[in-house]
Design a protein that fits this description.
Elements lengths: L2 E3 L2 E3 L1 H18 L5 H26 L8 H15 L6 H22 L7 H10 L5 E2 L2 E10 L6 H16 L4 H8 L8 E6 L5 H7 L11 E2 L3 E11 L2 E2 L2 H31 L2 E3 L1
Helix pairs in contact: 1-2, 2-4, 3-4, 5-9
């Protein structure tokens, strides 16, 4: 079946290409839905995306005559410079440049009335998304590590680490033993501050569960055998509103821009002839 939007043809292969483009993100978010339902909705969303793109392009085409030829020439020369050579089909490339410029002009006109968000809206957004604007718990840790090496028996490595742990339990300085025995001896094995997601999971599971000043038992990760010491901990802490104000302003303005575009497209749909043949 072929889709037509105001007489403009959209082939089934174009919809399928959009399906494949959306599929990775879509299936990650909606993995819990039944397969048949996922495929149906993914197809419908892809179809709708193409309809909206065509309606925007058709509306923008009315402004093409207002695009200055010199602006098109300049954009073409810049593109040729970026690519290292001019296109074999200069006319087609310039046509695409005109379409892009007219679309940008239309979007600018649609979103031109979007206002800067009010202080009330900024604070409301901040309070609603506090978790997003929170710096997670952080730990500062040092470690003594023996990396996995094909030439070394893993049991020998564990025995070495157990001996090092015994020295630590007997009161030998951690930094001293790290400098002497660790495969990562710099700064006494100090890893600095880090939040979750920065280290491998096996390492984080151990250190984030430890108390300040505690020394771990010997444990393994994919890299080798470790002994860790927690030297500082910082609890999760929300960023101040002032620290994230500009981020919030950008996000609210982008939301308003998207709403304005959606409203315009909805109005175009009411006038459009959309047919499946």
């Amino acid at each position: 079946m072929t889709l037509y939007v105001n007489g403009e043809k959209i082939d089934a292969k174009d919809i399928q290409a959009e399906v494949e483009k959306l599929r990775p993100d879509y299936e990650r978010v909606f993995a819990d839905k039944p397969e048949a339902e996922r495929q149906k909705q993914l197809y419908e969303w892809s179809r709708e995306n193409l309809i909206e793109a065509v309606l925007l392009r058709q509306a923008a085409s009315k402004d093409q005559k207002d695009i200055p030829p010199e602006a098109v020439d300049k954009a073409y020369e810049q593109l040729a410079k970026q690519n290292g050579s001019k296109s074999d089909d200069e006319e087609q490339v310039k046509k695409e440049i005109v379409e892009r410029m007219s679309l940008e002009k239309l979007i600018s006109r649609i979103t031109g009335s979007v206002k800067v968000p009010s202080q009330k809206d900024i604070r409301k957004y901040y309070e609603k998304h506090t978790a997003r604007f929170t710096i997670g718990e952080m730990v500062r840790a040092s470690h003594i590590v023996k990396y996995h090496k094909p030439s070394v028996n893993p049991d020998d490595t564990k025995n070495q680490m157990q001996q090092i742990l015994k020295e630590l339990r007997d009161g030998t300085d951690f930094d001293q033993l790290a400098g002497k025995h660790s495969d990562c001896p710099d700064n006494g094995g100090d890893l600095g501050y880090f939040s979750r997601g920065k280290m491998v999971a096996e390492f984080e599971d151990v250190v984030f569960a430890m108390e300040l000043g505690q020394i771990s038992d010997v444990f393994e990760t994919e890299f080798g055998c470790h002994i860790a010491r927690v030297t500082d901990k910082k609890p999760a802490m929300p960023c101040s509103l002032e620290d994230v104000r500009q981020v919030i302003v950008r996000e609210l303005r982008e939301q308003a821009r998207q709403k304005a575009i959606e409203k315009f497209i909805d109005a175009q749909k009411t006038k459009a002839m959309i047919e499946d043949k």
